[in-house]
Amino acid sequence: SEVAETPKKSSSSSTDHNTMSQSNQSRRLQIRTHTGWMECRHDIGTFASSLLSIYESLKPSEEHMSKQSRLIDSLTKSVTKEWPNAQLHLYGSCANSFGTSHSDVDVCLEIEIGTGSEVELLLRLAEILRGDNFDSVEAITSARVPIVRMLDAGSDFSCDICINNLLAVANTKLLKDYAQIDGRLLQLASIVKHWAKLRGVNETYRGTLSSYAYVLMCISFLQLREPKILPCLQAMEPTYTMVVDDTECAYFDEVHQLRDFGAENKETIAELLWAFFHYWAFQHDYRKDVISIRMGKIISKKEKNWTTRIGNDRHLICIEDPFETGHDLGRIVDRQTIRIIREEFERAAAMLQHDDDPCVTLFEPYNYEN
Fold first, then answer.
1. Rounded Cα–Cα distance for residues 324 and 304 (Å)
2. Going from the N-terminus, what domains does the chain have, and what CATH number goes with each?
3. Contact between residue 106 and residue 92 where contact means Cβ atoms under 8 Å apart
4. How far is 29 from 40, CA to CA, in rounded Å?
5. Under a CB-based contact definition with an 8 Å cutoff, are residues 52 and 269 in contact?
6. What average pLDDT score do residues 327-341 get?
7. With 70 as the cut, is the pLDDT of residue 22 above it?
8. What superkingdom does the record give (predicted)?
9. Per-residue pLDDT for 202 more than 90?
10. Are 82 and 128 in contact, with CB atoms under 8 Å apart?
């Protein structure tokens, strides 16, 4: 059985910890979590306004959003000339509310493929877009999800277009609906994603975690708070259903009815951010546990049959996709990168606990040369 190792402290991590201010170590507050009591500095709330300023700075501007809309309008005109019944769907971070002004645009072309192949259709789409003067159009047909990649000169957006990736469209809607229930989810996930990018643990090509995985981790964390901040939408009577290749995507999407769901929980973004990092640094059982927003609770690796490595799927940090439930978002993490990720969680928890100005040190970019 391949399980996550307990991370060893690197010398740089130890140095970070040794140079932290010790002045605040005795000032603590107890915060109740689903796993029991843990201690947090009593003045953690004083950092909330700085964290909220960072969050506000990450939100896409209105100009960014209007450029995105114009791009989709242009693409729709190009596509429907050739395929009148086709539909374009935005998906991913540009559409699920968790994007920034740096987010690229991901588009799904929903279309009846008919007698041709998906590759032929992508090649034809690339031809059409070149003819309509889009820039740097390239059909990448050998990728795991084949795409047409292009650049929109008017907005400078990079845009990837895939065919019939409707599971991604469904989980985009799910995340967008969760984001409308309690504003603390957007705050927490945006800050965690920003931290992960700066610290070099948001790069799937390096064996770390995707932005999507971090958002699921934040949703799960808020489902597990006491009192709960988020409900489990898939455990409720479904009001939205879409079937994609025999996979049923169903959940309660009347989220306007749930706006006060987490009102009993008064935790600030500073308390939640510290507790998130503390959970992933010290409380999560990497050997046994899978986080599941579908169930709204922790489930076991044994139940998922994710206890051993199969092919390249290592299951060292297990994050269940809410609809494609056989898909572990952490499967690409290996023994080296799980150690790096866990050290970064420990560093973040310690910075928030001990540092005089954690809103600076927490987001210091990781220097790969050191």
1. 12
2. 11-57+182-361 (1.10.1410.10), 62-168 (3.30.460.10)
3. yes
4. 5
5. yes
6. 96
7. no
8. Eukaryota
9. yes
10. yes
Say which residue the tokens 């050191």 belong to.
370
Residue whose structure tokens are 């994609």: 244
**pLDDT by residue (tens digit) across 176-201?**
999 999 999 999 999 999 999 999 99
Q: Give the chain as a 3 state SS string.
A: CCCCCCCCCCHHHHHHHHHCCCCCCCCCEEEEECCEEEEECCCHHHHHHHHHHHHHHHCCCHHHHHHHHHHHHHHHHHHHHHCCCCEEEEEHHHCCCCCCCCCCEEEEEECCCCCCCHHHHHHHHHHHHHHCCCEEEEEECCCCCCEEEEEECCCCEEEEEEECCHHHHHHHHHHHHHHCCCHHHHHHHHHHHHHHHHCCCCCHHHCCCCHHHHHHHHHHHHHCCCCCCCCCHHHCCCCEEEEECCEEEEECCCHHHHCCCCCCCCCCHHHHHHHHHHHHHHHCCCCCEEEECCCCEEEEHHHHCCCCCECCECCCCEEECCCCCCCECCCCCCHHHHHHHHHHHHHHHHHHHHCCCHHHHCCCCCCCCC
Nearest-5° Cα angle at 263, 259 to 268: 115
pLDDT higher than threshold 50 for residue 302? yes
User: Residue 248 has which token pair?
Assistant: 């049923």
In degrees to the nearest 10, what's the CA dihedral of 181, 187, 193, 195? -160
**Which pair of tokens denotes residue 125?**
């789409």
pLDDT in tens, 64-99: 899 999 999 999 999 999 999 999 999 999 999 999
Q: Which two tokens stand for residue 43?
A: 């003045």
pLDDT at position 1 over 50 = no
Q: What is the pTM of this model?
A: 0.87
